[in-house]
Design brief:
about 350 residues, mainly alpha, two-stranded antiparallel sheet, 14 helices
Length: about 350
């Protein structure tokens, strides 16, 4: 088990790296044309040109951290870092030029392919008795892996509808991954979780209202991808899998819920599911009467509750653990119904 002192030091180093690179990233954004202009899209509400520095901060920070801790970039994590670079580069390209959905997905599938080739994949179906045997199980594992990595990556990008939301959610999720990976005896993942926590804290400092810079697609997607990878590599061999398999889903539950809400709402209205719009959970909370800061804080509080429930369930018998997860799913489905059918929370015209 890693020493707590080492974890704390890595967290602080990551926080300092993120803060230092923030000063360097802003002028780079201006030179590269990574500026988000007011009114560039219907859902954008900021009043002044703002640098899209999140991706550059993450990229430069990770470069520094891998030089300081070269042992972290080995085995499967080497593949994870290479895949993250692809996500980051396509994200920066998107922030600068505005890519089509097809090109965005091409970059994400390329990154996912690298991750899978490196051994990062879901193995939950490997020991099940399927009609097609082990071959079918492996195919289904790969399909689920692609769905998870692409889904969570886009979930973090989609929920990035207000300053501080994604950076705060990433900080909470990373911090809880420190606890669960410590309990599972996976020190390399604990170190990465600590680094991601420190980096997310630095991003939150600069991105909280009023934001000095935006995360952009590059920042939000990179954070989502890294957290999705941590979730796949998390493997609590000392815990009952029947009580822990859903822990990553709960830890990343808020962006997953938001994406489910948006996709359901837009498909129901025959609208494109992946175009920017003001119909996310945050927008609906504001429409329901909360001010901006309280809406963001409520999302973070819900994330904290879900993270705590994940830790609680892991220590329970499978029946209690899965009942806890089922209650969370039912609550989420009920909220989707309320948000999308109640006039109080509807934020887009009916079709």
């Amino acid at each position: 088990m890693p020493e707590l002192t080492d974890i704390f030091v890595q967290l602080i180093v990551a926080l300092l790296a993120g803060t230092l690179t923030s000063f360097l990233a802003v002028p780079l954004c201006q030179r590269l044309g990574l500026i988000d202009l007011p009114g560039a899209a219907p859902h954008k509400q900021h009043a002044r040109p703002t640098p899209l520095a999140g991706g550059l901060v993450i990229g430069m920070s990770l470069a520094i951290l891998t030089l300081v801790y070269p042992s972290l970039v080995s085995g499967k994590m080497l593949g994870a870092v290479l895949a993250t670079v692809i996500i980051l580069l396509f994200g920066i390209w998107d922030d600068r030029a505005g890519l089509s959905a097809l090109v965005k997905f091409a970059g994400q599938f390329l990154a996912v392919g690298i991750a899978i080739y490196s051994g990062i994949r879901i193995e939950i179906l490997s020991e099940t008795n399927l009609p097609g045997g082990e071959s079918l199980a492996q195919i289904l594992n790969i399909v689920l892996t692609v769905f998870w990595l692409v889904g969570v990556t886009n979930a973090f990008n989609l929920i990035d509808s207000m300053d501080g939301i994604v950076a705060g959610l990433s900080t909470l999720a990373s911090a809880f991954f420190i606890f669960v990976t410590l309990a599972s005896g996976q020190p390399e993942l604990t170190h990465w979780a600590a680094i991601l926590t420190g980096l997310s804290l630095a991003l939150y400092f600069w991105n909280m209202p009023p934001a000095r810079y935006f995360l952009g697609d590059s920042g939000a997607q990179t954070l989502g991808f890294l957290l999705a990878v941590l979730a796949l590599l998390y493997n609590p061999l000392n815990k009952d899998q029947a009580s822990s398999w859903f822990a990553p889903i709960l830890i990343l539950g808020v962006p997953i819920f938001d994406t489910s809400l948006v996709v359901f709402s837009r498909l129901r209205r025959h609208l494109p599911p992946f175009e920017g719009n003001r119909d996310h959970t945050y927008h609906r909370l504001v429409k329901g009467g909360l001010n901006s800061s309280r809406a963001v804080s409520l999302l973070h509080i819900i994330a904290l509750v879900l993270d705590s429930l994940a830790l609680f369930a892991m220590s329970q018998q499978p029946v209690v653990a899965n009942l806890t997860f089922a209650i969370c799913i039912l609550a989420g489905m009920s909220l989707i119904t309320v948000f999308d059918f109640s006039e109080k929370f509807i934020t887009q015209p009916k079709h």
